[in-house]
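Figure 3 (text version): structure tokens given as input.
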């Protein structure tokens, strides 16, 4: 039976599938409520307010593909599937569902019994991701019309929900110990790179731990300069662009990796710029506000450069999209199609 999205009737949906959808929505609503505490209280996770909207947009953008999987099947190929592979995938899916449910339950109970804390939020986010992905795979064993769905189609359908499931791990804070270690590592590396570069260029500078001693004052490379804030925000931007505009999995991974690389490089540029600003104008000049004609106060030098990191990274990722989507064969075919009419016109004129 072949159906399209326009012919899909809600009455055709099995009650079990409807129940699972409502369960997922309930789990998502509780998770959003839990994470909203961090979005409001911490500037480095304020981008989290966009996560629910972007997750819904990705699902809506893939609506046709999702409906296509749950309404179509090729029953002629069901006999060709290897039962061993199907059994292993089902076992993994059930294990992930049980693990995710336990993680979500523990995180939810911990969140309800105490104030918001990182381990509870992380457990809820991980549990939700496992429950969502495993539920999609388990409950897609049959189409809504009772026909079996091919294993490869079930895997493809599950893959479509990868972004809505995993993006919550970025919008939630890491465990305190791990987050502190990452901040300290990045902070140290930023300080070393900025000091080495300025010293190589001949500037009079001295390093004392994470403090840079300049002729006109002292600049402390604080936690905000570690780059963890821009790293999480840029990772979110790269994940969204990859899920919406790229099809092949390796291209998606490459864009996410490039997002992290751009975040690190732009943060080094930001730290170097602020250090040079303090070198020439004094350490206190970093907090001076920039006043632009017709616009007015756009914020302090420190804050403006922080926003510039995210803007530059996003622009860089957008510029990469046409490169990653470039297909040489498609380009050559279009080139040939554009040349053929001209050749036909010339031949007609000659005759």
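Below: residues designed for each position.
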């Amino acid at each position: 039976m072949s159906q399209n999205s326009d012919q899909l009737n809600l009455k055709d949906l099995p009650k079990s599938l409807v129940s699972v959808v409502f369960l997922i929505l309930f789990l998502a609503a509780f998770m959003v409520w839990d994470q909203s505490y961090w979005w409001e209280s911490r500037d480095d996770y304020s981008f989290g307010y966009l996560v629910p909207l972007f997750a819904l947009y990705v699902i809506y953008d893939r609506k046709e593909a999702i409906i296509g999987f749950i309404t179509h099947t090729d029953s002629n190929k069901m006999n060709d599937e290897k039962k061993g592979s199907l059994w292993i995938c089902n076992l993994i899916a059930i294990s992930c569902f049980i693990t995710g449910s336990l993680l979500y339950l523990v995180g939810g109970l911990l969140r309800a019994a105490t104030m918001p804390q990182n381990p509870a939020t992380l457990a809820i986010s991980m549990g939700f991701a496992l429950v969502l992905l495993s539920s999609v795979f388990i409950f897609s064993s049959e189409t809504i019309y009772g026909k079996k769905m091919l294993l490869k189609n079930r895997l493809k359908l599950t893959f479509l929900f990868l972004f809505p499931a995993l993006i919550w791990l970025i919008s939630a804070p890491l465990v305190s110990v791990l987050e502190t270690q990452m901040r300290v590592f990045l902070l140290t590396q930023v300080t070393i790179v900025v000091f080495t570069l300025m010293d190589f260029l001949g500037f009079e500078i001295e390093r004392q731990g994470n403090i840079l001693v300049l002729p006109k004052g002292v600049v402390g490379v604080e936690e905000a300069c570690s780059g963890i804030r821009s790293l999480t925000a840029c990772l979110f931007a790269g994940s969204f662009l990859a899920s919406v505009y790229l099809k092949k999995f390796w291209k998606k991974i490459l864009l996410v990796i490039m997002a992290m690389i751009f975040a690190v490089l732009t943060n080094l540029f930001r730290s170097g710029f602020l250090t040079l600003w303090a070198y020439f104008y004094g350490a206190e000049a970093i907090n001076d506000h920039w006043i632009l004609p017709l616009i007015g106060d756009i914020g302090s030098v420190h804050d403006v450069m922080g926003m510039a990191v995210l803007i530059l990274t996003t622009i860089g990722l957008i510029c990469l999209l046409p490169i990653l989507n470039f297909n040489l064969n498609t380009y050559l075919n279009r080139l040939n199609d554009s040349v053929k009419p001209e050749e036909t016109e010339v031949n007609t004129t000659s005759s």
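The longest strand covers residues 296-300.
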